[in-house]
Specification:
Layout lengths: L1 E3 H7 L11 E8 L4 E9 L6 E9 L9 E11 L6 E9 L2 E2 L7 H17 L6 H8 L22 H9 L7
Antiparallel strand pairs: 1-6, 2-3, 3-4, 4-5, 5-6, 6-7
Helix pairs in contact: 2-3
Length: 173
């Protein structure tokens, strides 16, 4: 997925173009459950890397969990040969690399992040499992699926072709 910087940040829910050292944060504190959801899109100091990150911070973490859980991390960089175009290079979700794992992973990663931001803006804690199943479902497949198209080496029966050509009452193939 190749997009301009403006289109990319729009897909992440920012709504404005980010410049070097700029950050767009969103935060929601669920005081009842003691969980803080933090999402942010940030541009590096050189303006050559864009990152989107979603974290959960627990006041009292569940047994065996860290107080800070990085739910999602996405990275995009400008394309050298295409002036002004950016591409997503990394997508990590719950410590699992989704890059090239799911068809159309770049767009689905942006949609997932934007859905999380929408939940945070609505002052709700994002349901990560629900959003993963809804936004990152792999209903589509990469190219090369079986049963599509024709055979590259069809079996031709030359005797039938010659018979049709020699038969004066034949109407062709």
């Amino acid at each position: 997925m190749k997009l301009s910087l403006r289109e990319l940040v729009d897909r992440l829910g920012v709504g404005r173009e980010l410049h070097a050292y700029e950050t767009q944060p969103w935060i929601y504190v669920d005081s009842k459950d003691g969980i803080t959801a933090s999402a942010e899109v940030r541009m590096s100091g050189d303006g050559d890397t864009l990152e989107a990150e979603l974290q959960f911070m627990y006041d009292t973490p569940p047994e065996g969990k860290s107080p800070v859980e990085q739910v999602m991390w996405l990275k995009a960089r400008p394309l050298m040969r295409l002036e002004g175009m950016w591409a997503t290079t990394d997508l990590w979700l719950r410590r699992e690399n989704y890059a090239n794992k799911v068809y159309n992973w770049e767009e689905k990663g942006c949609n997932f992040f934007r859905a999380c931001v929408r939940e945070i803006k609505a002052e709700r804690l994002p349901d990560i499992d629900l959003l993963i199943s809804r936004e990152l479902a792999s209903r589509e497949v990469f190219g090369g699926g079986a049963g599509e198209g024709s055979n590259k080496s069809p079996q031709i029966k030359t005797t039938q072709l010659l018979y049709d050509m020699k038969n004066p009452h034949s109407r062709g193939f």
